[in-house]
Amino acid sequence: MVGLAAVLRGFTGFGLALAAVPGLTLVLPPAEAVPCVLLLQIAAGAQLVPGTRNAIDWGALAPILIGAIAATPIGTVLLAGVPADAMRAAIGLVLLAAVVLLTRRPLVARRPSLAARGAIGIMSGVLNGSTAMAGPPVIAYFLAASASHAAGRASLLAYFFLISIASLVSALAAGLVTVRIVVFAAALLPFMAIGNAVGHRLFGRASPAAYRRIALATLSAMAVLAIARALLR
């Protein structure tokens, strides 16, 4: 399952946690599965980000990343007062609406303002701290506003690599990363590396239209899973 999740992540630039966490929770409790995936995401980023760094849209990514890191503690505070399942359901519904809009209007006419990019980062950080779902606003942004599919994918690879490092620091501070988790992640590393490489190779052969279809399908799956998780608990 980790290998297949890594293929998805290597191709789209996101989706590792979406595909890997449900499988890992069959053999690990969620409190261990999530830090394990963080370690794998960092390793996956270290594998692909250096080779795609020249395509990263740093002008868009930097304010988003700063806003996300700054707002993650706000999400953690909200977690204590707002039911996480209600937030997941709301995220899923908004995400489905975003997919519909992205399908009908593929690209925005011009890059959103600096304030808008910062707001997207803050939204991502709040979601990261409250529901561990940092991706939806950022994925939707880069699918809509990137000059090319290569720039969008490279920026997403860099975003998840860097936000995973920040999240891992928090997990370490909370004592959630144990030797057992590190050993488990190390055992899964070869499967992740192979899947990552396969996904990267497939991306090189895909047309921009095919990339967009698969990315939007993955985004839709994220929305449906978020709603299902909220309703079926």
List the topology elements.
Elements lengths: L1 H11 L3 H9 L5 H23 L5 H24 L2 H21 L9 H18 L3 H11 L3 H25 L5 H27 L2 H24 L2
Helix pairs in contact: 1-2, 1-9, 2-3, 3-8, 3-9, 4-6, 4-8, 5-7, 5-10, 6-7, 7-8, 7-10
Question: Would you kindly provide a written description of the structure presented here, covering whatever features stand out?
Answer:
The protein has helices spanning 2-12, 16-24, 30-52, 58-81, 84-104, 114-131, 135-145, 149-173, 179-205, 208-231. The radius of gyration is 16 Å and the shape is globular. With 233 residues, the chain is mainly alpha-helical. Helix content is 83%, strand content 0%.
Task: Write a compact overview of the structure shown.
This protein has 233 residues and is mainly α.
Count of distinct strands? 0
The level of helicity is: over 70%
Counting DSSP H or I runs of 4 or more residues, the number of helices is: 10
The separation of the N and C termini measures: 23 Å
Portion in beta strands? under 5%
